[in-house]
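Quick question about two entries, pasted in order.
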Amino acid sequence: MDGWNIPPLNSPLNSRIESFAVKARWNFQMSLLVAAGALSLPSGMKLGYVILYVKDVLRSIAFYEEAFGLKRRFVHEAGLYAEMDTGTTTLSFAAYGLAKSNLPCEFREHDASGPPAGFEVAFTTDDVQAAYDRALAAGAVAAAPPVAKPWGQVVAFVRDKDGIIVELCTPSTQS
């Protein structure tokens, strides 16, 4: 890449970046333990829901079933809200219209053709390559193929039909 000043892999900058990545991964894994109920927040609060606002709830849950093997737990009769069976923390989908009626502020709708929003949904699996291939076959867009990270995890990234980033990763070796 012409014009990019990328430091060599053994440089102090890359060591700091790798150290930051390991710490960020550890913090993320700790938040997952809190979400799973394995750790409690001091305030007694627990992460109960992650709600993704999407254009078409029924299309999204059908995609997550096909791409990631999730099962639907609840679908509202109007199709404006649905929950997937994902364990302690519920992964939900809500229609943009529902978001607009609940939120007094404006929000940015996802645009699959533009840059993704600054968050991801992560699923753990023992076979990242198979999960990645399944997601692509279901219509996900490749964001980053499976790669082994220095801290021991294998991770891959895809974008769902709304452009939301989904990480597929092996369980953390740091927890």
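Here is the second entry:
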Amino acid sequence: MGVLYSYGVLLKPKVTLALLALYVTSYITSSLFFGGGPFEARWFLIGFTAVAFAVTGSNGLNCYIDRDIDAGMARTSGRPLVLGSIPPRSALTFSLAMMAAASVIALWLGTTPVLILVVGAGSYLLLYSMFLKRRSMWNVFANAPSVAAPAWFGWLMGGAPLFPLGLLLGGLVAVWSLLHLWSLAYAFRKDYLRVGVPMLSTVLPDDRAIKSINAALALTVASSYLLTPWTRSFTYLVGVTALNVSLILISRGLSGNNPRRAAWRLFKLSAPYIVLLFLAFMVSQVF
């Protein structure tokens, strides 16, 4: 049971569930409201399996690549590769097997699914984890396509064309990721600096770091309204505004006495924000 638990932690279950939720809501919205066809459980499950394999495999490989960094950070020091509950070679083999399974499914589905897989996994593992994460304060931009990929995949599998709405949905996730990751990095600024990861919100002075987070927040809020022309009721407008007001209220704490705590709260709220935004868009097609 301990080994199974360790492998579950290796695959970052919270991240995996969030990205799978983006796939699910994108697929349902695409299939039922923009694809012109009924919900196809078979295609839904095939796509869901591919995304699950790709996300868990990528997460495991990221833990393998970053195991030295994880050992030096309080937030990640309890991960299996740091504690030694999973040997690095076993984690690598398991994660590569997950990626291989995702690749086989994508190849069977066609060219576009393969391209989405390559863009998603390649940006996360190669551009971000292996190349830019330890070298550039602009590193999170390389990670952005990876979080957008499940939304693109779900929209494509649902049967609607990617352009323009499918691409836009993924773009909103990419924009959101800047706020999400810069808030996290600022909350754990000392950890990131200690292990040599130059996130934008950690290397800039406090005032400029906070401005960068607020800029990402403003971009996230503004871009969320781009979906409005494709809604069929005021449900989305009301729902997304409530979400945005919540983020803005929490962000006010960045200018207070404990900006690190405010950044952590902003990070925690921004995690479900993007899933709830997708859900609100889906519901707005009915109510």
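Reply: The mean pLDDT is 96. The chain has 14 helices and no strands. Hope that helps.
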